[in-house]
Amino acid sequence: MRKNPNVLGIVLIISSSIGFGLAPTFAKFSYDSGANAVGTLLARFSVATLLMLVVRKIISRKSYLVNRQKVKWPAPKLFGQLFLLGALGYFIASILYFTAIENIDSGLAITIFYCNPVIVVLLSWWLLGNKPSPIIVWCLVSTLIGVAIAAGQVGNADTISVILVLIVAVEYAFYLIISSKVLPKIDLPTGVTIVMFGSATSLAIYSIVAPNSISVVFPGSLAGWVSVLMMAIVATVIPVATLYAGMNLIGTGKSAIIQTFEPVASIIAGVIFLSEPLTLPRIIGATFVIGAVGVLATVESRNTTQTIHQ
Predict the structure, then answer these.
(1) Which listed site, 7, 53, 57, 238, has its alpha carbon 20 to 30 Å from 189?
(2) Of 193, 222, 232, 245, whose CA–CA distance to 16 is shortest?
(3) CA–CA gap between residue 13 and residue 19 (Å, rounded)
(4) What is the dihedral of CA 41, 268, 176, 48, to 10 degrees?
């Protein structure tokens, strides 16, 4: 039986969504140890960069032993493009979102942010000519309904925070579109390493120039640093790598829909690790999201066309 790259892409994106969905839980543990958003994110991306350098070194060595070819760094122009993906795209999305959720109900933040799939699909149609099929439209509607229901009761709304999350939703949509065009030009480990380095660099600069009221505060305990390490591995390196790999196989529109599994993962993690209540609305919402992902996976598994989006 031939392997279907569409199915593999779906599995990769679901794995990525689960990893990203665990990030708020790890961040909460870091905050409990005394860290703030800037310190947590700076530690997260710094550790992630170091880990990716190790991974890239191992892969490069293996490639040399097998093919007698070293994994090379990209030309300055491509290096700069990848660096800016992290230094601008990923950095802006992270710092704005984690700043916003300090002053806004997390359910409201998730609901606002997951306007993002709509934006990505529309931008993919406009910029890349990827017209969404009827099944994508229906799955998109289902996932958005599910996310809205699962978010639960909205409260503690703060106007500035709402605006910040809206900015993140739009900015992250452009980030995904640009990523889909730039990252295929380089091997995955190298691309992810440079993106992580860009994010860490911007956060380091931000921590220096930011006002004293929001200066960097790192975790104050071993447990906090363990949380940061887990955040770097489970909620950063692995999901970023699987996101880019999956997006390269199935495109940005479908990837954006499957990524709406992330709030479901966040809800489950909150129930298990943070003792958050599992309410009926959250169960219904999760059913909508998982159902849409299941339908999409079933349709794609029947599609034998092996098209890799570049």
Answers:
(1) 7
(2) 245
(3) 10
(4) 30
φ and ψ at 124, to 5 degrees? -60, -40
Compute CA distances 235 → 25, 167, 211, 214, 265, whole Å: 10, 22, 28, 24, 11
**Which residues of the chain register pLDDT less than 50?**
1, 304-310
Place of tokens 């092996």: 306
Tokens standing for residue 198:
């860009």
User: pTM (2 decimals)?
Assistant: 0.77
Q: What is the pLDDT of residue 154?
A: 52
Say how far apart CA 141 and CA 115 lie, in whole Å. Answer: 11
Tally of CA atoms within 13 A in the half-sphere of 66 that contains its CB = 7
In degrees to the nearest 10, what's the CA dihedral of 205, 163, 214, 199?
-30
